[in-house]
Amino acid sequence: MVINPSPREIITALLPHLRVAAGYARHLQSQINSLPDKDAGDNLFTAALTDADISIQTLIEVAILGTFPNMRFYGEEYEKSHNTKYFRSIELGEQDDYLITLDPIDGTKLYLDGSDNYLIILSVLNADEYEAVMTISPANNSYWLTFRGEGIYQGDLDKDLDACTPLKAIDHQPTILLGWGLASLKPPLDKKYHVIDLEHSYIPDKNFPNYKNMFSGDLIGWATKRGKFIDSAALAFMAKEAGYIVTDLVGLPLVPLSSCENYSYEGIVVGVNREVHQDLLAAVN
């Protein structure tokens, strides 16, 4: 048992369990049953819930409690979990008192509709900033990984962390993805970019984009009204580590995590370069 594990020790210890979770998600996708929608869901993406969400979170909770029993942990399905009461806290702590967060299936609606673009996202948060984020693509048996100040890496899920390689420079498609409730930004951007807004453009398609598609070159930018710690904010941190421009909706740097409420930022704008970012900001404002 490690008393005060480093972010790398946390990710390394949980990697075997995340491999199991990815295999489970991949195997069950074609036969998974949907649970009743989340009461708090405000759109078709946040409302979806499956057996996979609950089961994967339970698996990772057991792994954390058995390996790092004194860790703070916040999982998306904490209200439905039988393990929440056994963690020291689900809240952010003081500096260097890390909080592990988990989105067991990021893109549950995509998952239910047979898309490959769902993720498992595990993060290690400090009071001021993320220390580490690992995003796993079960369908592709791969992952992206970043530690604070170390850039972004990609790897084969079957291999350990020391085998992953830096994200390669890629040419991006001129496509922008707008989160739910931002459809009004589409007209001023349409003349220059191919714009997809989740609220009106979503179709059940195997390759419908997710914010993480910036790392594969399929997106040049994205914006969201609400950057949740467990998913879009974690992907924004990875984007910043990859050298992309990341701000709030008025162009200011994102505030420390401890300054946020309800485990989320009030909006995030991400551009692969300053021109794209400025175009997005101009549309927002």
Summarize the structure.
With 285 residues, this protein is α+β, with helices and mostly antiparallel strands.
Describe the structure.
α1 (7-28) runs antiparallel to α3. The model has no long low-confidence stretch (mean pLDDT 92). The protein folds into two domains: 7-166, Fructose-1,6-Bisphosphatase, subunit A, domain 1 (Fructose-1,6-Bisphosphatase, Chain A, domain 1, 2-Layer Sandwich), CATH 3.30.540.10; 175-284, D-Maltodextrin-Binding Protein, domain 2. The protein is 27% helix and 22% strand. β3 (119-125) and β4 (130-137) form a beta hairpin. The protein has a seven-stranded mixed sheet, sandwiched between helices. The protein is an alpha+beta fold and 285 residues long. It is globular, with a radius of gyration of 18 Å. Belongs to the inositol monophosphatase superfamily. InterPro entries: Inositol_monoP_superfamily, Inositol_monophosphatase-like. Keywords: Hydrolase, Magnesium, Metal-binding.
**Domain unit count:** 2
Considering DSSP H and I runs of 4 or more, what fraction of the residues is helical? 25-40%
How many whole angstroms does the radius of gyration measure?
18 Å
Q: Average pLDDT, to the nearest integer?
A: 92
Identify the CATH homologous superfamily of the largest domain: Fructose-1,6-Bisphosphatase, subunit A, domain 1
Strand residue percentage: 15-25%
- Low-confidence runs: none
The strand count comes to 14
Question: Strand order within the widest sheet?
Answer: 1-2-3-4-5-6-7
Kindly report the CATH topology of the largest domain.
Answer: Fructose-1,6-Bisphosphatase, Chain A, domain 1
* Topology pattern, helix = H, strand = E: HHHEEHEEEEEEHEHEEHEEEH
Number of alpha- plus pi-helical segments = 8
Q: What is the class of the largest domain in the CATH system?
A: Alpha Beta
What is the CATH-assigned architecture of the largest domain? 2-Layer Sandwich
Structural class: alpha+beta
Shape descriptor: globular
Q: CA-to-CA gap between the ends?
A: 50 Å
Instruction: Please summarize the sheet with the most strands.
Output: 7 strands, mixed
